[in-house]
Design a protein that fits this description.
By secondary structure, this protein is of the alpha+beta class. 31% of the residues lie in helices and 22% in strands. The chain has helices at residues 7-25, 34-47, 119-134, 142-155, 236-241, 247-260, 267-270, 283-299; strands at residues 51-52, 57-60, 63-65, 90-99, 102-111, 159-160, 166-169, 179-180, 201-204, 207-209, 216-219, 227-230, 265-266, 303-305, 308-311, 317-319, 322-327, 330-333.
């Protein structure tokens, strides 16, 4: 439960996250690049007193979540075009901010060019988020929250995504164990037992789709998101003493942990760490060394990584998200300006 003495951190993180989201949405215009928007958002966060709680992510059209650019700005697998916004694109922008580990997580969906192609889907996704938040009163069963989130999308002719969930937030934990349903899972679903708890912080983020399956799928290799996270389950010191890591690998693991703790980080943030130990190496050599390091750190479970996600049947995806604190009187939205 939230420590009263740290409430200011939660509020400040939410405030910066919302300001970033609203400021950067105006940069999603035809002809601008995904990478420029991502970098602009991360600069905004840092300039305004926060740090990214995870890499800013962009998901266009059928892509749903978990994609940020890498240091070489390589486009994701299965994406045919350039990473440039075009009129009519349906774009999800997801921004998280932390202040001393306390997280504000929010997202929105916009249509590039305002042609009105996706107006109803965008409205339904936003209403789904708001309907779910209205149910965040202490003691409300989670299946009722899921049913509330699903209904606006269903009423508008879209399908809720069933295998993407909201999540509880705790200091330094973006996904703190409990998942929040965004579909009518029913009271017997074992994955969503329990009730809304007073004093807890939840990220509420229903997704909807124009597709029929209501499901998302992994895209490409398991590191296709370009996002990694220190698991917190393995000590680099022990890995070094057990000869699972060489000294340089252990030093790099230590640097990553000290910089990012257990919050997700971008490949493009960490890749420059190789410049100092390998000053004479060219791009190809550094890339090879990075791949070997990451493979090793994942194999010993020091790191985990994520797939980019897209709609299973190619449907267009919409999403909105707020972070909310549950008080005795109901939800308090933290991601507000």
């Amino acid at each position: 439960m939230v420590d009263e003495s740290n409430l200011k951190y939660w509020h400040d993180a939410g405030h910066v996250a919302r300001r970033a989201l609203e400021a950067i949405r105006d940069e999603i215009t035809a002809g601008s690049t995904w990478h420029s928007v991502i970098e602009s958002a991360e600069r905004f966060i840092r300039r305004n007193g926060g740090k990214p709680a995870f890499p800013v992510t962009i998901a266009v059209n059928e892509f749903a979540a978990h994609y940020t650019t890498d240091h070489s700005v390589t486009k994701p697998e299965s994406w045919d075009g350039d990473m440039v916004f075009n009129n009519g694109d349906l774009v999800k922008l997801d921004i998280g901010v932390h202040i001393n580990g306390h997280i504000g997580d929010n997202a929105l969906t916009v249509e590039v060019g305002n042609k009105g192609i996706h107006t109803e889907q965008i409205r339904a996704a936003k209403e789904a988020r708001d309907a779910a938040i209205e149910m965040l009163h202490p003691g409300t069963p989670w299946y009722k929250v899921g049913a509330a989130a699903a209904q606006p999308s269903i009423d508008a002719g879209f399908r809720p995504i069933r295998n993407l969930c909201g999540h509880q937030l705790k200091p330094w934990e973006l996904h703190a164990g409990l998942s929040v349903p965004s579909y009518a899972c029913g009271p017997e679903n074992q994955g969503f037992k329990g009730v809304v708890e007073e004093g807890a912080v939840y990220a509420i983020e229903p997704f909807n789709t124009t597709g029929d399956s209501g499901l998302i799928q992994n895209v490409g290799a398991r590191n296709s998101s370009n996002i990694y996270r220190v698991t917190g389950n393995v000590s680099w010191r022990k890995a070094l003493s057990r000869k699972q890591l060489k000294p340089l690998g252990a030093q790099l693991a230590r640097n990553i942990e000290e910089r990012y703790s257990t919050l997700p980080f971008a490949e493009r943030w960490a890749f420059p760490m190789l410049e100092k130990p390998f000053p004479e190496a060219d791009e190809s050599s550094r890339q090879s060394k990075w791949n070997a390091l990451v493979k090793k750190l994942i194999s010993i479970r020091f790191l985990e990584t994520y797939h980019a996600l897209s709609c299973q049947d190619g449907g267009m995806i919409g999403q909105f998200e707020h972070t909310a604190l549950v008080t005795s009187g109901g939800p308090e939205i933290l991601t507000v300006e």
